[in-house]
Amino acid sequence: MKNIKKYLCAIVMMVISMTAFAQEDIFSGDWLGANKEGDLKVAFTLNCDGNWQLNPYNENARCNGFMEVNMLEPGGRESLMATYEFYVESMNGNELTLSFVGGRPEVDAGISGQCKVVYKDDKLSFSGLDKGGKDAAFNGLTLVKSGSGADAIADAAADDGVPLGVKILAVLQLILYIAVVLFIVGHMFFVWYKGARYKEVFTVEGMLNKRLAAGMPEKMTDEEITEAWKLMDEAFATWTVIEKTDDDEFRKPTKMKQIKKSVLLIDQVISMCPTDADVIERLNSLTDVINSGEERHFDGSKKLIWLGVIVGILMYWMMGVGMMFSTLIATGLYVVASRTPQFLIDKRALRGGGNIHNGIFAGVFGLLAGAQTVRTIYKFNDGHKEYSDDHSQHWIALAIGLVVLFVLAMMMAFWALLNYLRNYVLYF
Question: Are residues 112 and 258 located together in one domain of the fold?
């Protein structure tokens, strides 16, 4: 029985050793790679079994791996860009966690971080795990075994290591984003294009023709006239009181639900084809109020538009033409999304206004205006004075103000979406 236990233990230890050796064997060796642009070449040696003298620039260093990153100049000349020493932290199947430091004691001093290495299809894919790993020259590169040839290196450089499922999901998200943007833009331009709700000025003659065409009696009955006045009074009563006098009160809609409710009542009057002159005059006045209430005017921040244009132009030098166009397009969408129906402008005016950007700009300028210069006066025994002015408050206020304005401009897409929801969907 004891011998059987010994044999079992020996077999288990052998399996563990073989597994560990197999895990190490897939990573260990010499690897080569390049980036997509073809201006970086990488040579990497890894031996997971113990620490070795792999760094030719430091004879005292003992590590598991060493990498040289060379920059390829336009003439074909190679120049050493960076070197790294690697140390195995953990191994899990086809994944390896490495820590690294700079390889040349003086030139690469201060370089350190962690990265993950994934073995798949005879390739090693590197990805940074912390800031140092993400800033490293090898982050995102894929390497192949030394001796695989130039074609294999080129194929590895073209492989970004992103799984196909992740790529498909990213494409679907992009398609969904574009579809949402096109829907929003299409909806705003449709609302703009369709114009006024009531495009007709009603007349007695026009209503007579409609009644005859519909086979209705030529004249309204007294009951119909009474019903028409009742419906119009109900429509008027749904609106908000703006001004009230002893003899009369002035109302107009300030909410979309008021417009919708009054439109249902007004449309009933229109369907009756009224021929009474007083009814038609009152009907035209109600439809005029509806049309003027739904007429759109720009109610956004002109300062924010100028800020978006300026930051968009600056993006060209800071982050490229793509970021410039995205900022300018978002600014244009903000302009269209800020076209607000008049009834909503009136509603916001009653509650004190609804443009938060002017308040932010006022706060920034108030911060700048509130900064003070601190003057220190030094008096000497001989009677003369010297002055020293401290402008740090101004510089701090200016820095804070610029950051706030920059963030405000970078959120242009959010402001456009917010104004679209406020002015075209929710009406608040």
Answer: no
- Residues 23 and 155 both lie in one domain: yes
Residues 156 and 45 in one domain: yes
Rg of the chain, C-alpha, whole Å = 37
Distance CA 61, CA 55 (A): 7
Q: What are the DSSP calls for 386-398, one per residue?
A: EEEEE-HHHHHHH
Q: What is the DSSP letter of 385?
A: E
In a domain, 173, yes or no: no
Same domain, 311 and 284: no
If asked whether residues 209 and 352 sit together in one domain, one would say no
pLDDT tens for each residue of 255-285: 999 999 999 999 999 999 999 999 999 999 9
Residues 351 and 409 in one domain: yes
Last residue of a domain, one of 292, 310, 337: 292
Concatenated DSSP letters of 73-127: -TTS-EEEEEEEEEEEEEEETTEEEEEEEESSTTTTTT-EEEEEEEEETTEEEEE
Of the chain, the percentage scoring pLDDT greater than 70 comes to 91
Q: Answer yes or no: is 193 within a domain.
A: no
pTM (predicted TM-score): 0.62
Indicate if 27 and 150 belong to the same structural domain. Answer: yes
282-291, 351-360, 399-408: lowest mean pLDDT where?
Answer: 351-360
| pLDDT tens-place string over residues 292-324 | 999 999 999 899 999 999 999 988 888 778 888
Give the range of the structural domain holding residue 277, as residue numbers without chain letter. 204-292
From residue 89, alpha-carbon distances to 42, 52, 117, 229 in Å are: 22, 15, 11, 86
Work out whether the CA dihedral 280, 285, 290, 294 comes out positive or negative: positive
Asked whether residue 121 is domain-assigned, the answer is yes
Find all residues with CB under 8 Å of 370, minimum gap 6, and list them: 397
Please state, in angstroms and rounded to a whole number, the distance separating the CA atoms of residues 346 and 338: 15
| Cβ atoms of 47 and 54 closer than 8 Å | yes
